[in-house]
Amino acid sequence: MNENNTSATTNSTSVKTGERFVILGAGESGVGAAYLAQQQGYDVFVSDFGAIADKYKKQLLDWNIRFEEAQHTEAEILKAAEVVKSPGIPDKAPIVKKLREQGVPVISEIEFAGRYTDAKMICITGSNGKTTTTSLTYHILKNAGLNVGLAGNIGNSFAYQVATEKFDHYVLELSSFMLDDMYRFKADIAVLLNITPDHLDRYDYKLENYAASKFRITQNQTAEDYFIYCADDTETIKGMENRSFAAQQLPFSIQKEIQPGAYLENDNIVINTTLAHFTMSIKELALQGKHNIYNSMASGIVAKVLELRNETMRESMGNFKNIEHRLEFVAKISGISFINDSKATNVNSTWYALESMTTDVVLILGGVDKGNDYSMLKDLVKQKVKAIVCLGKDNKRIHDAFEDDVEVIVNTGSAQEAAQVAFHLSEKGDTVLLSPACASFDLFKNYEDRGQQFKDAVKEL
Where along the chain is ATP bound (predicted)? Predict the structure, then answer.
């Protein structure tokens, strides 16, 4: 990182030191952006329409950064030279509409922080698997001795790390919401895992609009950069048809041989880039299940592009421990395995979780339904699920979707009750899987709270 770096400053807009810089949303990314902006000499003001968490309020106070909560004071915000917006704030929010009408640039924390670092950017997006792939990629790079940071949708904010660290590489998990507010930022290595319907309420319920957001990960790339994507993903291939890509393409597939790129041959992952060759048995991978072969291929291609040693890759891909709340093993009680997949907040994520199960399953489903289409789960539920335990306030759509496929569907109102009921419905050799396919806000603060309460409940059985 070099704060005075000329290539970074050519990327900036016309905002000058001392000008008003506003941050909307005082979560991890917003507070990090505020710190970096202050460090760069801007007049910083942070505004959150909700309550600010104590942790972030303390940081803002410690740093003497002005802020407000539970309101947006237009007189303060509309005189901004530039605004960083939290990814959770939609474009249709009144304050964002007014800013855009006045021609004030509204950008993401990633766009802003990218101006102040020379580090190589490895950026990962996709509807499913991006947190796992980001974490695995970071794990491989760190184990190989690279000076690497982890940020985006995961870990400490990118902006705060740019302000306080000097990493040579960053592995960034990017959501479509983040990508929407990125314009000049460039990924040196861009990874697109898959595109399946998610968050369509933010995209006029059009899959092509959501897909266009995902493809923003390739914007500004040059012939020296890399675009890694899944050749088996229908929507990705469809989206590529009418787009051009300057970067070198490295696809991955488990259905066909691909050169250069990655493919499956006799249960071995084979990675062939122009730079090197790598093979590893899928039985040796720490992450099991078809979807995790894809995730491992994507991470493996990144490692080969960076010319990491095969031995280091093999070791890291074999000893990686998955992130909390994503197919996380909790405990084995009376021969019954308990798995916490609370991060599965859409149907596709739950499909991936079920697909990786090798035993009979008691499935804990439910929460805030984002207009879910449960039909894609039907075949897997028939094959693997012996009972469904609903964990949510309104479970009617789950009953309607699966009443013909499983004999037992039970309603519960807490993580503790769900764990107890699932335990009683299971027998030795079964798996109790919390993979809700829904958001958590009806009964919990967030998916982490839901997962933690489930883990606590399991430990009390």
Answer: 126-132
pTM recorded for the entire structure: 0.79
What is the layout of strands, in order, in the sheet containing 336-340?
Answer: 328-333, 336-340, 431-434, 361-365, 385-391, 408-412
pLDDT tens for each residue of 430-456 = 999 999 999 998 899 999 999 999 999
Question: Measured between alpha carbons, how far is 191 from 295 in angstroms, rounded to an integer?
Answer: 10
Residues in a beta bridge with 412:
391
Q: Is 86 annotated for ligand binding?
A: no
Contact 281, 268 (CB under 8 A): yes
Single-letter amino acid, residue 110? I
DSSP string computed for 102-146: TT--EE-HHHHHHTT---EEEEEE-SSSHHHHHHHHHHHHHHTT-
- The CATH class of the 112-319 domain is alpha beta
**What is the dotted CATH code of the domain comprising 18-107?**
3.40.50.720
To the question of whether residue 127 is assigned a binding role by annotation, the answer is yes
132 is in an annotated binding site: yes
Amino acid (1-letter code) at residue 422: A
Sign of CA dihedral 173, 177, 181, 184: positive
32 marked ligand binding residue: no
Q: Is 382 annotated as a binding residue?
A: no
Q: pLDDT band for position 199 (50/70/90)?
A: low
Specify the CATH superfamily of domain 328-459: Mur ligase, C-terminal domain (3.90.190.20)
User: Which amino acid type is present at position 427?
Assistant: E
237: CB partners within 8 A, 6+ apart: 231
What residue segments make up the domains of the chain, in order of their start?
18-107, 112-319, 328-459
